[in-house]
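Input chain follows. Return structure tokens only.
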Amino acid sequence: SGIALVALFGYKASFSIGMGGLPWLIMAEIFADIVRAQASAVASGLHWSCSFIVTVGFGHVKKAFGAPSTFFIFAIITIAIANPT
């Protein structure tokens, strides 16, 4: 359990230094000054809402379809969202 805890802290630290802050940086750059506060609040709320849905839904999807299919489903959704064409 000690190795898992160290690995978890290592992942969190490296993610926070790398890709973790990227959405917040992009939000600060793409919104105009006049609407930045409101738009950032809406974007942050949407981000956390989607994270909650994925967290809650993951267990149900895994129970229904099994682990390999669940990761495949989430991968397909991610590819569809990242590449809308």
